[in-house]
Amino acid sequence: xxxxxxxxxxxxxxxxxxxxxxxxxxxxxxxxxxxxxxxxxxxxxxxxxxxxxxxxxxxxxxxxxxxxxxxxxxxxxxxxxxxxxxxxxxxxxxxxxxxxxxxxxxxxxxxxxxxxxxxxxxxxxxxxxxxxxxxxxxx
Length: 139
Fold this sequence. Notes:
Blueprint: H1 2-28, H2 35-38, H3 48-55, E1 60-63, E2 69-77, E3 98-106, E4 112-119
């Protein structure tokens, strides 16, 4: 009887660990790049601070020699709890994941020059944009 209790405790511990893994993965990776937020980006108006407010800190940030800033956000939604089911998880939609990317180029004055949005499921698109060209003339 002692051996049966030990096996039952091991099964309960494994189940609790599996459930907590599923729950925490969904809690940490909320889908934060939405079409509604992408539609709020305005060429020549939206600033880096506003972008960070909308999407959180970017995954990457680079500054080029022209002092233009490139920002990128990458998000992926973790697999559903069904994906954790052994053997049948992939057959019940458990491996349907979504990857998202937002790329923004800021001018040297800190406003958006252009941007693109992508989703592996096609749920995001950047609206048509009129690109503002910056020219500099030698004096």
